[in-house]
Structures are given as C-alpha cells and as structure tokens.
Design a protein that fits this description.
By secondary structure, the chain is an alpha/beta fold. The protein contains 10 helices and 8 strands. It has an 8-stranded parallel β-sheet with strand order 1-2-3-4-5-6-7-8. Helix 1 packs parallel to helix 9. The radius of gyration is 17 Å and the shape is globular. The protein starts with 7 loop residues before the first strand and ends in a 5-residue tail after the last helix. The relative contact order is 0.16.
Length: about 280
Amino acid sequence: MSDAVPVIDSHHHLWRYMPEEFGWLDEPMAELRRDFLPKDLDVDLASAGVDGTVAVQARQSLEETRWLCGLADGSESIRGVVGWAPIAAPEFAGVLEGVRGLPRLVGLRHVVQGEATGFLDGPAFNAGIALLAGAGLTYDLLILERQLEETVRFVDRHPAQAFVVDHVAKPRIAAGELEPWRSQMRELARRPNVMCKVSGMVTEADWRNWSLEGLRPYLDVCVDSFGPARLMAGSDWPVCLVASSYAGWWAALREYFAGFTEAERDAIFGGNAIAFYELSGK
C-alpha cells in the first residue's frame, strides 16, 4: 500500500465497563468485561500498522456520544466518531442541532440488530434519518442478515443519505450458509449511496477455528457486490478479540487483498473511509 494513504480502522469501540449497560457481554465474552480506552487501542494499532480510526458507539446514549467525541478530540489516532442520538424521538431535530458540532462527530448509528422486524419501516425513525444528510452526517447500518430485505426498502427512501453496512450484515459464517445473504447483499449494493465495512466477520465465524479460507466466499461476495471503491476495512475491536488478535485480523485482510492493485488496497484500507466520513488528516 502507498505510504501516502493512511491505514484507517473504520470500526472500533471504546468503553468503560458497567455491568448494567453491557448485558450483551455474556459469558463467552467475559474477557471483554473491562475498560477499553485509547491507551489500550494505541497498543494494538501499533502492532498492526494502523494509522487512524473511527470510534463507533456501543451504548445508546448521548452521554457516550459526547464522551467518545471528547476522547477523539484529545487523540492522535481517533479521526472520527459515529455516535448515537434518539433519531426516532420527536425532539430529534433539536438534539441534532446540539450534537452536530461535537468534535469529530461524523455519523450516527442505532443498534437496529436488536430491534424487531420492520423497525426500519417505522415513520418516526425515517423522519429522523431524513434530517441527517442536511446535517452532513453519515449513517451506519448495524443489521443482521434477516433485516436485509427491510434495509433495501429503507435505503430506497433516502437516496441522498450516505450509508455504510457494518460487519457485512452479519451472515451465518459459522454455519457456512451464503443464501439468502448473498442475493440480498447484491441487491443492496445496487444502491450507489451504500458502502460496506469488511469488519466483524471473525465473530460470526467459529471463534476457535475460523480461517481466511472460510471467510473467503463471504469476502468474495462483498467485493463482487460493492467493488473496491465501496469497501472499507475495519476491526470491530475489542469485540473481535474473542476470536482473533487485532494484528491477526489485519494480517488476514492484507492477505486476502494482496492481489488487488495498490490503488484498490489504498482505497479499501484507508482512502474510502477518509472520503466517506470526511476524516481530517493528522
């Protein structure tokens, strides 16, 4: 990859662990029941040759959004923050005015994967999303495979909004199943305002026995669907640590993309994230 383009981890988290707010860290993920702060992140960034990052919300609170932006403002590594705000709330327009000026806030996300089927068809949520483009904010789609069909309908309502799919929409990698995920991802990718993060894949695979060869069919679908110009590399750190070291995940990505052109690798490993999120260079 070119030295001129920074390597950007487009997706990671930071948190101060509180049992009451991290109930999703169940027993198999017990090792993650601790704080993960910028000093911890910087150690892993150095191990993997990553230059900068995008921090993404893990809790659905404005308090966390402000906290992440404060951390980013004091960090050499964190180039952008994807926070949370109450998009479906009647007061969202006012809230948006209050948060849009936070340091390095580049987008918003809601944990849609935890919502009931049809959530993305809700009028209140759609009304909130309609305000984001005017505020210059992107939107991260955190969904499960089963939500891809409604995601297509959702995206079609907002052709001017910049979207990115997190964690390749969480296909059933451990079960080795490609359909209907493959067909639905190809359909979603027909929308030019949607990008895809190549992240969070090891935790959808067998944590103890995953391999690049096992991930390859899913990576191939992402490349065939979105092309190098609409993919961005990410880690899902620290969640990924239950299945892989940070450096190990980046090594797998670099091995998979080794045969791509230098320009394509520069885009996937940094340029696309910088452009999509309008990240400042540091």
